[in-house]
Amino acid sequence: MTDVAMSGDDRPTAAAWRNLVVATVGFTLTFWAWNLIAPLAADFDDELHMSSFAQSELVAIPVLVGSLGRVPVGALTDRYGARVMFPLVSALTIVPVLLLVPAHDSYLALIAVGFVLGLGGTTFAIGVPLVNSWFPPKQRGAALGVFGMGMGGVALSGYFTPRMYRYSENLPFVVLAIALAVYAVLAYFLINDRPDRPIPSTPLTTRLGQAGRLRVTWELSALYAIGFGGIVAFGVYLPTYLKTWYELDATDAGTRAAGFALVAVVFRPIGGWLSDRIHPAVVTAWALGAVAILGVVQAFDPALVPGATICLLVMAAALGATSGAVFALVARVTPQPQVGSVTGIVGAVGGLGGFVPPLVMGAVYSAKDSYSIGFMLLSDLALAGCVYAYGRMREAGRTAPTRSAPEKERIAG
Asked: What's the pTM?
């Protein structure tokens, strides 16, 4: 497999599309694994009798570990490539998936396995540099948006995991372990890194330090923490919120949460596509502005049908578009040799954005018997992101392509 990245007319080749499809499938499966505990938290609670905060902690642990793990995994991808890292991480994720079989009767065991299960959330930092290297600049936003649809693994988990669990308690874990094993083998043969991919020779810590010194790394991280963090937070906590506040049963709550995730998945490539045609910072600003308004509306606890349903689904669309737009901006302003390292940091902070809200929502509900404060905080953050994206990041997006990597680092410093 020695295909070049683009054909003579600057269009992606078959190799580019093959890598995009295989990476998206792997991202979907590992994200399903990453979100295995959340849709079953209510079922586990029937036996373990957890508090609201304990449930929040249980579903948030994999998010935390998966988020932080993106930093070293992204840097390792810069060095060793996606052909090594994607099969390796997919295969290793099988271990915690199968460990859920003996662990689901013990809260401490679930916490420990959830910690290792976070590995499944790191594949995002593998796929972004792979896709980014194979597609021309004018199509990277849309391509990265398509890859981002792999977060639909959250929707698949929300819908299928509780249903398989009710049929047989071990079924979802066994099925997903087999799927990951098959994928790891296929990925080894089907994924290939771009032949002229720049391979850094500096140590991992040095590369992370260089990425961390770029001002734009942290600006993008903050925006992604709101967009993608919001999706992750809703993905892991929405079943609990719907069950607690709207008194739905676990299956119905999981189905509606899957619908939320599905809408976010569909709108992620739309956000990337719009970013290729308008400007990713403008798309980000408009989408976050919508989230800010809808957060206030949901804080007033509208009826589930139609008010809250419409509000949550439109919010999912806006958060999905934000996620796609932010990574279109990553592709625009980041030097190619540093894409993996920057992606790791941005993805980590974005995932951490999904770690904190479930804990906050659980703590606020335990203290105030209401979720309104949590939604108002979301609105405030989204409004701040809207203003910053429109006011500052439009300039970063315009000026970055005309500067070399060293010039960018001087600006960042």
From this structure: 0.71
